[in-house]
Amino acid sequence: MILLKIMNNKIKQIRTVKGMDDIVPEDNNYWEFIEASFKEILMSAGFQRIVTPIVEDALLFERPIGEKTDIIEKEMYYLERKNDDDDKKERLALRPENTASVVRSYLEHGMHVKTQPVKVFYFGPMFRHDKPQKGRFRQFFHIGAEAIGDDDPMIDAEIISISYRLLKKLKIDNFSIQINSIGTSKTRESFIKKLKEYYHPYLSDMCDECKSRIKTNPLRLLDCKQQSCQRYKEGTPQIIDYLDTKDKSHFMEVLEYLDELEIPYELNTHLVRGLDYYTRTVFEIWPQTDKIKDPSRFAVGGGGRYDGLAELIGGKSVPGIGFAFGVERIIEILKMTDKKIKHSKSPDIFIVQLGGLAKRKSLKAAEILREEGFSVVFAANKDSVKSQLKLADRLKVPIALIIGQKEVLDGTLILRDMNGGMQETVPINMVVDEVRKRLPKDQ
Ligand code: HAM
């Protein structure tokens, strides 16, 4: 426990902020596996990495995500600098998501002159002051992708297909892709009118949030999770019936592509997503395991089209579509379903040193071997050969190189095969070749 004495001799415990966790080395396998799988799939589809700042102008998020959404109303972290005077004050925010930032970057760097769509992916922390609970954190990681500059339904299908392939690659088999089209803000107007009319008679029985949502963000009435509101869901008007011909045929084409790709999906006319910038195709990926009671609250990923987002942040109109997965939730599912992730590769070589002179030489030897491409570890704090070899064994290192006073003077090393226990003396200039010969093929 870390205890710090602060003013007035009070004691404060220093620990991670509520809802924000360390990623400990034990979980490294999962993080590496997810990032590597994701990169492989996206790079094979022509996506390149983009990194945008964690801190942005708050305005970037407020309008596109929606002033009346939970994210902006309740969850965004605003930053304050101690010494800024009022007229110089910048309104900065920790990013709650990355799509708006990527579109800002597209506009700021004039990416419209590139071949369209511009395809990018990202991996990084997002911040939402949500109520911490299982699978819900205040700092969490997104692994996401965006294709900006093309509104062809084929791109929608490609984005959904990549999400599908990613989960398959991660060996997550039981999930369902929920899909809907919510048209454009224009075509939504008549639907929203009908939706309000439908809910009006039931309002007095509904939750407080829905009572206010009907005025501020009526579309969100459709995904209220409260029991008191669920029972009215069945009879709601269907947004699909209100789409115009163009939106409808766009959606039909997306579904045809998905059928062609044999990607299973479920039409979910209640799916609206929690961010206002969406247009046309929206989708979410829900896990299917009896360990999760309400999969709609534990979506592992979600995304959709946002053809109006660039204009909402003051740029020219540019279509776009993308998705983001919650990395912590993917890990949770992998752990829940007992999916064994291959452990990170063991180091190739353990250098065992005996005596002061050997210890000085062993760091140099490690650097030389690392330059040759081997991964090399040692234990500076252990003196006995026995304890060093024991550690090498625990780390499952296939080769140990033992250096003592004699070896330093002779210009040799003892090479020990950690699996068979065989040892031989090797001249120092032969070590690289000898190690290479002996390393198991998959190392
Ligand atoms: P989102 O649905 O808000 O979409 O977030 C995507 C995923 O992030 C969710 O499905 C969930 O797995 C994870 N997630 C969200 N909030 C939390 C939280 N508090 N704790 C842990 N995980 C969480 C977006 O943010 C959009 N930008 C996705 C997108 C990309 N749409 C188009 N392009």
Could you please describe the fold and organization of this structure?
With 443 residues, this protein is an alpha+beta fold. It has 15 helices and 18 strands. The chain has helices at residues 28-43, 59-65, 70-75, 99-108, 153-169, 185-199, 208-216, 227-230, 245-260, 309-312, 327-336, 356-371, 385-394, 405-410, 431-438, and strands at residues 2-5, 11-14, 48-49, 55-57, 78-79, 92-94, 118-127, 139-148, 175-181, 266-267, 279-287, 301-305, 320-326, 349-353, 376-378, 399-403, 412-417, 423-427. The mean pLDDT is 93. It has two domains: 7-183 and 243-336, Bira Bifunctional Protein, Domain 2 (BirA Bifunctional Protein, domain 2, 2-Layer Sandwich); 349-438, 3-Layer(aba) Sandwich (Rossmann fold), CATH 3.40.50. A hairpin with a 5-residue loop joins β17 (412-417) and β18. The two termini are 39 Å apart. The strands form four sheets. It has an eight-stranded mixed sheet, sandwiched between helices. Strands 15-14-16-17-18 form a five-stranded mixed sheet, with helices on both faces. Strands 4-6-5 form a three-stranded antiparallel sheet, with helices on one face. It binds histidyl-adenosine monophosphate (HAM). The site of histidyl-adenosine monophosphate has 25 residues, from β8, β12, β13 and α11.
